[in-house]
Design a protein that fits this description.
Layout: E1 6-9, H1 19-34, E2 38-43, H2 53-66, E3 75-76, H3 81-93, E4 97-100, H4 104-117, E5 141-144, E6 151-156, E7 160-165, E8 173-175, H5 183-193, E9 198-202, H6 206-219, E10 225-229, E11 232-233, H7 249-254, H8 259-268, H9 281-287, E12 298-299, H10 302-315, H11 318-331, H12 339-352, H13 359-365, H14 367-370, H15 379-384, H16 387-401, H17 407-420, H18 425-435, H19 442-454, H20 457-465
Parallel strand pairs: 1-2, 2-3, 9-10, 11-12
Antiparallel strand pairs: 4-5, 5-8, 6-7
The protein binds one RNA strand of 75 nucleotides through helix 4, strand 7, helix 5, helix 6 and strand 12.
Length: 466
RNA sequence: GGCCCGUUCGUCUAUCGGUUAGGACGUCAGGUUUUCAACCUGAAAAGAGGGGUUCAACUCCCCUACGGGCUGCCA
């Protein structure tokens, strides 16, 4: 039991689930699930100004969509503030921390002076070794009494052994003057109390880990295994931020990427198992190791994401895809499908799913089924057509109302219309597409030819829909 | 400024001292398809730069360049 793996995901509620955070959660989830361990969720909401219930809700929704289930209740870090303070007092009692009465102005002045002299700006509190009898009656913070000599070695599963000289680390504040804990203290206490054995997080925390290790040492707690994964960068190689576009996971759902594809793509981004690119959740859980995580930041590639998603759509069960479509429409704030549309789409799914990479693509290919009858070409677009295209269109429009063609009949109808005007099928599509701009019905007629050719039962279903 | 981490085709990556440096996405060229797409075949495409160590270096060490991170009573 003692070697059971416990991981956690500890996001701060910023209003949405960051795509990078989602990948961190995924890694933690894969590692725990792959080893029969536990995956916990903790919301780091100690910053009260920025924390709202809605923000937490967005994170839970994101994780749920991605299919990352967590064990036990969601822990609120804020709720545990008394416990954090208790630990701070304990460190004080052990002499591993001290009261610091320096004001923020004094600290700022210290840094200014240090900068001017080109020295380290790390604050050195005059209260570190002060006699308690000289303590003023004033607010104070509790600082960790960190070692000044020697070095701290982080044994990181991804980065290897990282050595930080202790003179590069300052006596960080653990408890603020208002009695609230800082992040540095809170993570350590929470991770320990929650029994976390493996801390898998972004490498922006790497250096801070050395500081946090001193708290573990002060409390004589075992230090968990650390694995600092590189952050995700935008296509330009810069740290992913809002200006790159989609950073929130819910935006990816709204763009119509299936969750299974997201999991696969995100897992493969910065982690590898040989040359395997496309895999199932079961394989990912089986194969996932911390050693397989790369050390360099990786960039988001939407083309590859799309490709992986396409493979997952093709491999998915039809009812799963129907659920995915429903979720997509909701996330994209689009109207839901009617019962008729649903049954038509369901029947066409075996054919549609082989060529769509995202849900919107799937829906676009199904437009012929989903479109309301009667179909009427746009008047303005009609006027802009050349005479040949216009006459082809007018010949075809009445035919579109009847949805019960066989493939052969369709071929005859469209082929004849084209041939009568000396055009090939290829020449035909463009003007028609233009004529029906805004409805994009025409391309789907040809899709329907393919569908009809492979599934005659569709003709009957469409008959009812029409 | 100081400290820490990183750097293989455009992108994600394989390689864990000896390979024609492999795969995937994308791109380009053909093919199939009575549109598009999908699909099939093929091609171009990489070890940041400079020093070492070694019989041998993409792999180990050092320097430089570039990118990122930390350096808060933010998380």
């Amino acid at each position: 039991m003692s070697d059971k793996i416990v991981t956690r995901f500890a996001p701060s509620p910023t209003g949405y689930l960051h795509i990078g955070g989602a990948r961190t959660a995924l890694f933690n989830w894969l590692f725990a699930r792959g080893h029969g361990g536990t995956f916990l969720l903790r919301i780091e909401d100690t910053d009260r100004a920025r924390s709202t219930p809605e923000a937490t809700e967005a994170i839970l929704k994101g994780l749920t969509w991605l299919g990352l289930d967590w064990d036990g209740d969601v822990v609120s870090q804020f709720d545990r503030a008394p416990r954090h303070a208790e630990v701070a007092r304990e460190m004080l009692a052990r002499g591993r921390a001290y009261k610091c009465f320096s004001s923020q102005e004094e600290i700022e002045a210290f840094r200014e002076a240090a900068r001017a002299e080109g020295k380290s700006t790390l604050f050195q509190s005059p209260w570190r070794d002060a006699d308690p009898s000289t303590y003023p009656d004033a607010p104070y913070v509790i600082r960790l009494r960190a070692p000044r000599d020697g070095a701290t070695v982080i044994q990181d599963k991804v980065q290897g052994d990282v050595t930080i000289r202790n003179d590069q680390l300052d006596d960080m504040v653990c408890l603020r003057s208002d009695g609230t804990p800082t992040y540095m203290l809170a993570v350590v206490v929470d991770d320990h109390d929650m029994g976390v054995t493996h801390v898998i997080r972004g490498d922006d925390h790497l250096v801070n880990t050395a500081r946090q290790m001193h708290i573990y040492h002060a409390m004589e707690w075992p230090v968990p295994v650390h694995a600092h994964i590189p952050l995700i960068h935008g296509p330009d190689g810069k740290k992913l931020s809002k200006r790159h576009g989609a950073v929130g996971l819910e935006q990816y759902q709204a763009m119509g990427y299936p969750a299974a594809g997201m999991r696969n793509y995100l897992a493969r981004l910065g982690w590898s198992h040989g040359d395997d690119e496309f895999f199932t959740d079961a394989q990912a859980r089986d194969w996932f190791t911390l050693e397989g995580i790369g050390r360099s930041p990786s960039r988001l590639d939407f083309k590859k994401l799309e490709n992986i998603c396409g493979q997952h759509i093709a491999a998915s069960q039809n009812d799963e895809l129907m659920g995915g479509v429903t979720g997509y429409l909701q996330a994209a704030a689009l109207p839901p499908l009617s019962a008729q549309q649903t049954s038509g789409l369901c029947a066409a799914m075996p054919i549609l799913k082989t060529s769509a990479k995202t849900f919107p693509q799937l829906l676009e290919k199904a437009e012929f089924i989903l479109t309301q009858r009667p179909i009427t070409p746009d008047e303005k677009a009609l006027k802009s057509l050349d005479s040949v295209s216009r006459s082809i269109l007018s010949e075809l429009t009445p035919q579109m109302q009847n949805a019960s063609w066989t493939r052969e009949e369709l071929e005859g109808i469209v082929g004849n219309a084209a041939n009568a005007h000396g055009l090939g099928m290829g020449k035909l599509a463009a003007p028609l597409r233009a004529a029906l701009a805004g409805r994009s019905v025409t391309p789907s007629i040809f899709d329907m030819m393919i569908i009809l050719g492979r599934d005659e039962t569709l003709a009957r279903i469409m008959d009812q829909a029409a």
